[in-house]
Amino acid sequence: MYGLILAGGSGSRLWPLSRELYPKQLLNIQNTESLLQSTFERLMEVMQPDNIISMTGIKHLSNVKYQLSKIISNPIVLSEPISKNTAPAIALASKYVADNFDEEEILLVVPSDHLIKDVNAFALTVAEGEKIAKQGYIVTFGVKPTYAETGYGYINVTNNKIEGGFKVNKFVEKPDSKLAEQYLEAGNYYWNSGIFMFKVSTLLNELKDCSSDIYSLLKNFDFKKTTDIPYIEFDKMPSISIDYAVMEKSDKIALVELKSDWNDLGSWKSIYDVSKKDSDGNVKIGHVLDEGSKNSLIYSSSKLVATIGLEDTVIVETEDAILACKSDRTQDVKKVFDTLKKQKDNTHLVHKTVYRPWGYYTVLAEGKGFLTKMIQVNPGQKLSVQSHNHRSEHWVVLEGVAKVLLEGKEHILSPGHSIDIDVKEIHSLQNPYENVLKIIEVQKGDLLIEEDIVRYEDMYGRV
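-> structure tokens emitted (463 positions)
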């Protein structure tokens, strides 16, 4: 069996903690590891780690590779040059398996942002689905509804049983509350978990019949030679979900009930539901001081958050944004995210603190023509060898010892010492030592963006 982890997406409903450049699958929300890492380890219970493929966007590639490299050396990560929804991603991963292994292999497709604690029950459900997939069905895993949720899609099944599953009748969009109540009472509707399984040959044949535009473009990708996905070819793909492209059109869809626990952590309400609560039903994370609140989620990432007398409320504080809403309106957080994106407000895009494979940086101040950061480089790590076309930089060491390569010369800087890097000078900041390195970086120039980096060498494969 092979696995595909869909590791793209922006996690907009978990704003302001989740941002476009650091979405929820990369966050540590429940455990000591990210949702992406938990997903990878869950798949390792049902297949070899070398059989697991991850698909992400180009802007998340380095972070995805870095997180997975803590579990397995040289993880297989395919990178979409532009977002085109799930159908092209799953089609290309299927082509990858067909090119490099065998199109009769089984492929299990999972999102990267689910919380599943009962891994044994998950593995047993996958085994049930595998039996049906081998018969030529595309298997979807449904979750038995426990309440009338309006934030999930639903799947309606027939009484026609197939092994341990059911033949699917239809897929249903996210319903209003009245319809959701009807689905719950009917008993033959399941939440759509977004987990699928199929023989690669089955999916390719269904693509040919149901989405010939995607199928016809697959010949332009040759994964026997490279894992690269050329932009010029991928841009021809339609932007469409696998549900619309195949699942709603095919007559070869079966459903197996997911017997494990499941939560897609798609909203702050879902975070509240799976978190440990105090005697008043509150979830308090971080530096929180509360008086008399009930059934509320209060999250602090950097500041003291003091609350008094709240009920059924969500408060989320980050360095540069605060969210406050009623618990039953958390699905609407996406509207705030979309508005910020439309207004080109960077609060939707990136945190003040940005994590990188080598450590992190925090934006301290910015204005016209200048940007100031605090940069931490972890022991044994180094930034890429790079230059900038639009900015100069001034570095001051705060803590630790910095090894700086500048135009071919090596400089060793201790706390209090500084160095200037002019526009277009080739340089690298490195920490080959045992202690953390912290510096202040002052950028000056007419274009102060992360895209103004020309990389020449990089230990994290970003060249």
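The chain has eleven helices and 27 strands.
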